[in-house]
Amino acid sequence: MNPAPPRFPAEWEPQSAILIAWPHADTDWADRLGEVEETYIALVAAITRFQPVLVCVADDDLQTYAEARLRSARVDLSRVHFLPAGYDDTWLRDSGPITLRDGAGFRLLDFRFTGWGGKFEASRDDQLVEHLDQAGTFLKSSRQPIDFALEGGAIETDGDGSLLSTWRCLHERHPAASRDDITRKLAGWLHQDRVLWLDHGYLEGDDTDAHIDTLARFAAPDAIVFQACDDPADSHFAELKAMADEIAALRTRDGQPYRLFPLPWAKPVIDEGRRLAASYANFLIINGAVLMPAYGDAADAKAQAVLAEAFPDREVVAVPCRPLIWQNGSLHCITMQLPAGVVAA
């Protein structure tokens, strides 16, 4: 009997922990470190209500400092585990492991991380998965290095063989490759039966070249949550309307339309003359909850209601993320879920 092939689990499947990296003065957060630390404290506090969190720290001093900040916030430190590691920045969604279930164990896919196509220095981030693996972080796991630039935020799976991505991002990373070629490679490495491409959708202030996790996410094998724009005067209106039409035309494996959950549109956030990418689609699914990025906007409550409808069996917890979008990402971008069993509970 042939063994079952590896499987890419959906984010809503049971998790052992969330992996993050603590910001410090040598990351891009230096100019606004205090504000960003408050977001990280709120994030860790939210996660530890439901499950453990693994926190990468650059050195012992940073661990001592992070522990003190979390203790002062009355975070349950029994669910916080620190991992010494070097990193250029804290976008673990893109530099962390993409984990497949493989028989009784796991396969850690270690794609190249190039700083979103060479925009930023990323040599230490590119070595993070190897470093954590060599440190014995993961259980029953084998690391598979893959010489192909791919970020975790660029792909979305339903756990049942369907992958969702944006052509803009993958084409930007691999301009000489055809869509058929990239489709074949992704389906092979990630063990997917089909790849669903979106040709529309972008956010001003996003330097990922339209990561799918800022635009559209699976909520179930038959449901998609996506960022909508209801302001005809906004520069995003036409592009996000075209994306919404594309999503409406997608079909499930059974040939049915997806159940669709459009997210509300926050008012423009302008910082030093620059529009920031405030997307509610950048939420994080954890055990028993959905953590939602909140921006201090009137649309926050509406987004929370939409996510509660899309995930009726989970608590929706708002995490203040306005400081994060200053560096062009949000809550999902700074986290990576680890499936149940890949690290010690």
TrEMBL record:
Highest taxon of the lineage: Bacteria
Pfam families membership: PAD_porph (PF04371)
InterPro entries cross-referenced by the UniProt entry: Peptidyl-Arg-deiminase_porph
Alphabetical list of Gene3D superfamilies matching this protein: L-arginine/glycine Amidinotransferase, Chain A
Keywords assigned: Hydrolase
Keyword Hydrolase: yes
Protein name as it appears in the record: Agmatine/peptidylarginine deiminase
Species: Lysobacter yangpyeongensis
